[in-house]
Specification:
It contains five helices and no strands. The longest helix is centred in the last third of the chain and has 26 residues.
Amino acid sequence: MDDAAARHADKVAAVRRAVFESAGATEPALRQAAGAGRPLPEPWGPYADEVRDRSYRLTDADIAGLKAAGRSEDEIFEVTVAAAMGAALHRLDAGLRALGGEAP
């Protein structure tokens, strides 16, 4: 397992940088908080929680609410990706630890 984790560590690190550190419509700190599950300012908190934990329950009304709060489609996209990517990376890291590998 260590070989597989090491072989892909640079790719995982590149994805982390792209999602959480690159320039965008939102500040990297907001995306980092969304990915880590930390508290977020309104209207992002409940939305990011839903993306991270219950994405199957999201509806068009959730997106419409964010737009009504003055958020752009680019901002919504970035926070959505950050929350989803944070959840996925958390699970990847936990799975690698469980298998005896190191998380990238």
